[in-house]
């Protein structure tokens, strides 16, 4: 139960920390004013409900200005064959009656959710942190240096179910990938760029191996997530936020760029990809290290639908990337190597 004082406004943080299903969140009779998502202030649009996909978070303002009684807060599954509903009570301190048993219905279909995504806008006038000191980031004016199209697939390898990105199903190695790269042992642990920048012509061939993509430091890159399957996908890129500029049904082609939001797309780190659709994000890879790009659906990630993006400093300088701390655990092929702390200068 959540208690509210009449006339007061409350800030609620709504997060989908599940392992598979998208959710729709709503409160009986109370509109939700969106003010933030994943660290970015948004234009304060008002919604009757919000679709929250796996790994995503929203912050909303709710004002207790309705008849003083109890109301249901509802979270229900979206875009699934089954309907799971969770309820909680929002109660006014001077409430005089129970909540109505008639729950507000959830929206139907993924087109509604896609349109809601398009309504999310970055608040360019809010006094909040920006990706550069000038208070704005004109990402729409930066030349794209590389386009990477990533397509998810599901198949079987040696009789076992596997999920993949561009035909490669990731497996973890005994020696952590970043340790191997740091100590110059990459060639003994994994191969860079097993995948190309475009999906394979056919999705039948599956390679089970560590999936590491090499990206040049400080390049501005466009990533297209294509989802040819019938289930919604959700991706997170650790260590980075990106500008979610578009999502549409069908397959992506360069002409689709004319539909991008190049002014005020929200800077975030999780993006959904609807069935038989694509989503586009843009970002500058200016943070050296090895970063995990993964499906937020736990089953998919565990069975290979993830990869790593390696961003290396061309100068091996602590200006760009710190040395590993002296407390870093060393294992695998690196266990007998010199202690970390003196490889970068």
Automatic annotation (TrEMBL):
Annotated Pfam families: Cu-oxidase (PF00394), Cu-oxidase_2 (PF07731)
Annotated organism of origin: Stylosanthes scabra
GO molecular function, one term: L-ascorbate oxidase activity
Encoding gene (name): BP10_11
EC number: 1.10.3.3
Assigned protein family: Belongs to the multicopper oxidase family.
Enzyme class: oxidoreductase
PANTHER family tied to this protein: L-ASCORBATE OXIDASE-LIKE PROTEIN, MULTI-COPPER OXIDASE
UniProt keyword list: Glycoprotein, Oxidoreductase
Domain Plastocyanin-like: from-to ranges: 2-94, 175-315
Gene3D superfamilies recorded: Cupredoxins - blue copper proteins
Identification of the protein by name: L-ascorbate oxidase
């Amino acid at each position: 139960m959540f208690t509210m004082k009449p006339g007061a406004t409350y800030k609620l943080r709504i997060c989908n920390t599940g392992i598979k299903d998208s959710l729709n969140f709503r409160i009986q009779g109370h509109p939700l004013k969106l003010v933030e998502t994943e660290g970015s202030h948004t234009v304060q649009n008002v919604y009757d409900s919000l679709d929250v996909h796996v790994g995503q978070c929203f912050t909303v303002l709710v004002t207790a200005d309705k008849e003083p009684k109890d109301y249901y807060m509802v979270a229900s599954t979206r875009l699934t064959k089954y309907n799971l509903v969770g309820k909680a009570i929002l109660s006014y301190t001077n409430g005089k009656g129970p909540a109505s048993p008639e729950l507000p219905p959830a929206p139907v279909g993924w087109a509604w959710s896609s349109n809601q995504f398009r309504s999310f806008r970055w608040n360019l006038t809010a006094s909040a942190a920006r990706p550069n000191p000038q208070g704005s980031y004109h990402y729409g004016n930066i030349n794209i240096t590389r386009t990477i199209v990533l397509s998810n697939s599901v198949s079987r390898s040696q009789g076992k179910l596997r999920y993949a990105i561009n035909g490669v199903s990731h497996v973890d190695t005994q020696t952590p990938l970043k340790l191997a790269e740091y100590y110059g042992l990459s060639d003994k642990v994994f191969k860079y760029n097993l995948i190309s920048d475009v999906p394979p012509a056919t999705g039948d061939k599956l390679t089970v191996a560590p999936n590491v993509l090499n990206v040049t430091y400080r390049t501005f890159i466009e990533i297209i997530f294509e989802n040819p399957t019938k289930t919604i996908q959700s991706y997170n890129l650790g260590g980075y936020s990106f500008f979610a500029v578009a999502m549409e049904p069908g397959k992506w082609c360069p002409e689709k760029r004319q539909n991008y939001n190049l002014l005020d797309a929200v800077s975030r780190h999780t993006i959904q990809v609807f069935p038989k659709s694509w989503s586009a994000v843009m970002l500058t890879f200016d943070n050296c290290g090895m970063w995990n790009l993964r499906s937020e659906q736990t089953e998919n990630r565990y069975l290979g639908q993830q990869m790593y993006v390696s961003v290396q400093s061309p100068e091996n300088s602590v200006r760009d990337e710190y040395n590993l701390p002296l407390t870093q655990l060393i294992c695998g092929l690196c266990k007998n190597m010199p202690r970390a702390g003196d490889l970068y200068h």
